[in-house]
Amino acid sequence: HGVQLVRGMPLTTILSYWRGLPNTTWDPVKYRQMVVTVPIGSHLPHAVGHAYAARFAGKDIVTVAYIGDGGTSENDFHSGLNFAGVWKTPTVFVVSNNHYAISVPYEKQTAAPTLADKAIGYGVAAERVNGFDVVAVRTAMMRALDRARRGDGPTLIEAVCYRYGPHATADDPALYRTADEEDAWRTLDPVDRMRRFLESIGRWDDAHERELLDDLRTEYDTALDEVGSIELPPRSDIIEHAFERVPASMLDQFHRIQHGAGEAPTPLPASRRWDVGSDELPSGPSTSMSVADAINATLHAEMAADPTTILLGQDVGVAGGVFRITDGLIERFGEERVIDAPINESGIVGAAIGMAMAGARPIAEIQFEGFSYPAFDQIASHLGRIRFRSRGNTHVPMVLRMPNGAGIGAHEHHCDSPEAYFAHTPGIVVVVPSTPVDAKGLLTAAIRSEDPVVFLEPKVLYRAGREDVPDTPYELPLGRARIRRTGSDLTLVTYGGMVPVSLRAAEAISASGVEVEVIDLRTVYPWDVETVSMSVARTGRLLFVQEPQRTGGIGAEVVAEI
Fold first, then answer.
1. Tens digit of pLDDT for each residue in 3-34?
2. Which CATH number characterizes residue 118's domain?
3. Could you tell me which residues are beta bridge partners of residue 15?
4. Catalytic hit among 255, 300, 414, 424
5. 1 catalytic per annotation
6. Both 316 and 445 in a single domain?
7. What is the largest CA-CA distance in the chain?
């Protein structure tokens, strides 16, 4: 909280956040501090990615991440320090070791003699200082900042201190520590220590302290009164900042909620509505491509067009990816922009989020879709929430690519279909192409999107067929389905690897006189309600075909909506 106050953040803003008011946030750019996140430790990879992108852009920026002693047991403490050490980012990690993670004492948290020792294995410089000594902490911090600015890499500072009070109002410290222990630490009180120091140099006296305390009490009481008078935001706040623009399906759902509550529908200006365009392909020369070829060509084209685009993932560089989708990129764009990252999915996604917040356009690759689960905290807690959390002041324009589905005889976690998990997460666009033409146009749109996009690539289709793909870069609209086959008797809705299967089935049943209309969703969230609804209105029947398990899937969502 000291950083927030020093950087001019109003006390009202700080207090209202901790009161849990839903519309409380701040501008991270103005105050140079990201909005506080609840998951412990998951912000560390963000700090590392932010530092990497800022350094790449030539900015003189050092990122600082704060964490408690308990947080050093979290997975992303490892991710953050490991990536920072490998990339030598200008990052400072400040660990407040107050000896208790709520009730769990230090010795039950780690076997390391000190928390500073943990940094050594990551190649991160470390210092251990008296956290009750303001001058010592400031001096250590200045050394760490100088080190980062010289290009000498990250530093971890362990500030040894003590938490005098409870963790929260429901916490009772008497259950896990003694009064004698608390009294012993009271003798080291940092306020008393600082008071004695300032008095010794003639910069403090009792009169000044009384005056300062009176001013602080007045400021605090005023801020508390202001917090109590803050009105709750309008109901429309829940949809305003989920995406750059509000999807039609989300707006319709919101208006139905308002109707049920007896409210008039909240109008949105055209600039805030997600109006899905139509499919238009450029004229001119084309090249025969597979889905794999189209994705590779798109990555080459977009990285050439936008120097802020950074690709990172496991084996994406020298090896060109296990499916050779990123082949040739590191030779063309260099290892600063095509990063063979440590094998840590949470670190890859978390670092990419930090890069995006720093102004880059990262494309993160998960080697197989089943490996995305260790990164789920980053995806569900941050990727889709940061825009809403900051009320639009920060966004994450990044693409998370991964192969998807079965069909290649692979082992478990190499043949999953997790798209429903991602579609359930607000703030994320989920795309699954099925043709080379769509793979290029949809990936181009995803990379250029201001919203985060999970781009799932059916591995069974990587090299299953070829078609002519326009050479000119083009975008296909996210959120627009495509009718692959017209019919009058049944609407069959599908996506991804099931599209060619469904088309073959439709052709086969046509011989029996049943004409099936096949719709390829392409974007499974937000999906094209209009196209599906109009088709079902004509045919009177709906069949959904999907590869993953039925329960809680995309099909269940579509059927329920229709």
1. 899 999 999 999 998 888 877 888 888 899 99
2. 3.40.50.970
3. none
4. 414
5. no
6. yes
7. 99
